[in-house]
Specification:
The protein is of the alpha/beta class. It has 31 helices and 18 strands. InterPro entries: ATPase_NBD (IPR043129), Bacterial_glucokinase (IPR050201), Glucokinase (IPR003836), Homeodomain-like_sf (IPR009057), HTH_RpiR (IPR000281), RpiR-like_SIS (IPR035472), SIS_dom (IPR001347), SIS_dom_sf (IPR046348).
Length: 641
């Protein structure tokens, strides 16, 4: 970069920087971790490469980069990693690093940490590539707003695609490289049989990823009855072909390119990739003119009746040095933009009301928009200090947004951080510290409660409250750990003046169920919902006219049998024999029902808003204050409070 260009870039960064500071971008492979800082749109600088083997974990490598660049604090980061990304736990298949996304985010102090598959990131980079960052191979012209295909030959064979959706793109996650290899001539049939001596399944990845070059070379040598030394690897075969023009090496590269062309053609017709096929990875860009003159394009189009269809599809080789940075930048930008454009109601609401807020309230709004994690995690005194406002201003800001108070605002803010809040299960492992496993248990519980809030059928909740409010008698049944929930429910509901009892013994449940009739209700709590004995007990009561409310997992025999089912699906820690999270969710359901019954019974006599205020739900935290309210529920109703 010339001095003049450098000065223009610096001026652009100064004039149009990200409002929330520089963003960290990373591209992590099995060998190297590449990092960069994005100061503004398309302003990616400070690119550095670190050998993964020199660092114990990903957080250590990131800390070293941040220290070397002296950037100070970073709020938002996005990482492309050569690994499947499915949930919070990442275990690299081609390196020893393993980490929790959420724990790493907290350890590094980021507000946002997105981790995506490297080919998903590369796919999202495609619309941002310039003509100088790609080379077209053969003819064809891309059709606007059409699907784009992507493949990349490196250590493996990556596959992805882009689907246009209005003004954005949707990247496909794919393991298409593992599709079964299909030979097209006698030579490739021999290579398939040669490979099958080592592997029971031969995929395209075996043949046209980087290691496939060596496999083909050795296979062709065996076919020609030639001896090959043990020191031959893909790089050596490529060197012999491009520099020494060794006939066997040249043939191996030509076969490699031909097989890759057949695979690319299959990808094009499968996706309908009229927007073009892009080729990335570390192998093909290094082949240069050899690839352009190879059988690749001819094999790509060799599709019988569909030759013309494929002839119209352009193929581009990606030549950009760090294209993954463009992709993770686009993904991170979309993630952060979603907070203000419908991705989250609370972020949208904040932005809509900015002009109507007082200067002090705007400082709280700016803190929530730019540092949402800080607002979620900090007590009110720290939020007020960081926004340079008083604590009453923070509360006033929350109520201006329509929230009941700070606790309600924090919950809405947390659910708006899709992609960064752990909405999947984090496994506890032997050797975890108290901080690690304690955090995982709490995160799993919070995640499950948030998922319950999103998926709970509130129409069934209303039906259950109606049944309980008019019940003559309520009995709570639970076996094993569920008996704890039944006893807790009995403790809450008997204060409403309704005859209640809890049974954790099948004999007592059966004896009591036989005496129930119309107007009576059984609340059956069961994680599995499969206990045949409990179902027989419920059959007896329902035949006599009693109703059953089930708190259980979805699509279980108990859920199907009940008058009303409140379903609570979740993920448990497999090694544990205790139904940890299910018990919490069942207790939460009981709290919801108890509050609903309290409100329903108190409505004719008491102003609900006054009662809620007296319950101090906002002041001390929802769970403790609701319980306190419930503990005085019956007395409040009787006194008309």
């Amino acid at each position: 970069m010339s001095t003049g260009q450098r000065n223009k870039t610096v001026a652009a960064v100064r004039d149009n920087p990200h409002a929330d500071g520089p963003r960290l971008l990373a591209d992590i492979g099995g060998t190297n971790a590449r990092f960069a800082l994005e100061y503004g749109p398309d302003q990616i600088e400070q690119i550095r490469v670190y050998p993964c083997a020199e660092y114990p974990g990903v957080a250590d490598a990131i800390r070293k980069y941040l220290k070397d660049t002296k950037v100070g604090h970073v709020n938002h980061a996005a990482v492309a990693i050569a690994n499947p990304v499915d949930g919070d736990e990442i275990r690299m298949t081609n390196h020893h690093w393993s980490f929790s996304i959420e724990s790493t985010r907290r350890a590094l102090g980021f507000d946002t940490l997105l981790v995506v598959n490297d080919f998903t990131a590369l796919a999202m980079a495609l619309p941002r590539l310039t003509d100088e960052q790609r080379v077209q191979v053969g003819g064809g012209k891309a059709k606007q707003n059409s699907v784009i295909g992507l493949l990349g030959a490196g250590t493996g064979l990556g596959v992805s695609g882009l689907i246009p959706a209005d003004d954005r793109w949707i990247a496909l996650g794919s393991e298409g490289g593992h599709a079964t290899f299909a030979p097209v001539d006698e030579r490739e049939v021999f290579l398939l049989e040669y490979a099958q001596k080592k592997w029971s399944h031969v995929s395209y990845e075996r043949m046209c990823a980087g290691p496939g070059i060596e496999l083909i070379y050795r296979g062709l040598a065996a076919r020609a009855k030639k001896r090959v030394g043990s020191n031959v690897d893909p790089a050596e075969v490529t060197r012999r072909a491009l520099e020494e023009h060794e006939p066997l090496a040249v043939e191996a590269l030509e076969v490699f390119c031909g097989i890759l062309g057949t695979f690319a053609g299959s990808l094009a017709v499968t996706l309908g990739a009229l927007g073009g096929i892009y080729i990335g990875g570390g192998v093909v860009p290094r082949l240069g003119e050899f690839f352009e003159k190879s059988p690749f394009r001819q094999r790509f189009e060799a599709r019988g009746r569909f030759e013309q269809y494929l002839a119209n599809i352009p193929i581009y080789v990606i030549t950009a040095e760090y294209p993954a940075f463009l992709g993770v930048s686009a993904i991170l930008h979309e993630q952060l933009s979603d907070r203000g454009s419908g991705g989250s109601a609370v972020f949208e609401r904040i932005r809509q009301m900015l002009d109507a807020l007082t200067p002090a309230e705007r400082r709280v709004a700016d803190l929530a928009l730019n540092h949402p994690r800080s607002v979620i995690n900090d007590p009110i005194v720290d939020i007020a200090r960081k926004a340079a406002v008083s604590q009453p201003t923070v509360i006033r800001f929350c109520r201006t947004l329509g929230c009941q108070g700070l606790s309600d605002f924090k919950l809405k803010l947390a659910t708006g951080l899709t992609g960064t809040i752990p909405m999947s299960h984090s496994q506890v492992h032997l050797g975890d510290t108290a901080t690690d496993f304690g955090t995982k248990v709490l995160d799993n519980t919070v995640s499950s409660i948030l998922q319950l809030r999103e998926h709970l059928n509130f129409e069934n909740v209303e039906k259950a409250i109606d049944i309980l409010s008019s019940a003559r008698r309520i009995e709570f049944y639970g076996l094993g750990n569920s008996n704890i929930v039944a006893q807790d429910a009995h403790y809450k509901f008997f204060r409403f003046g309704i005859p209640t009892i809890a049974y954790g013994d099948l004999y007592m449940q059966g004896a009591s169920a036989a005496l129930l009739g119309p107007g009576d209700v059984i609340v059956a709590v069961s994680k599995s919902g499969k206990a045949a004995e409990l179902q027989r007990v419920l059959d007896i009561a329902m035949q006599n006219g009693a109703k059953v409310i089930a708190i259980t997992s979805s699509n279980t025999p108990l859920a199907k049998k009940a008058t009303v089912a409140l379903e609570t699906d979740h993920i448990e820690i497999r090694e544990s024999q205790l139904s940890m999270i299910s018990r919490i969710l069942h207790l939460v359901i009981i709290d919801v029902l108890a509050v609903g019954v309290a409100i329903r019974r108190a409505a004719p006599q008491v102003d609900v808003q006054k009662s809620a205020k007296r319950a101090r739900i906002e002041g001390k935290g929802a769970t403790l204050d609701v319980l306190e309210w419930l503990s005085h529920g019956a007395a409040a109703v009787q006194k008309g409070e």
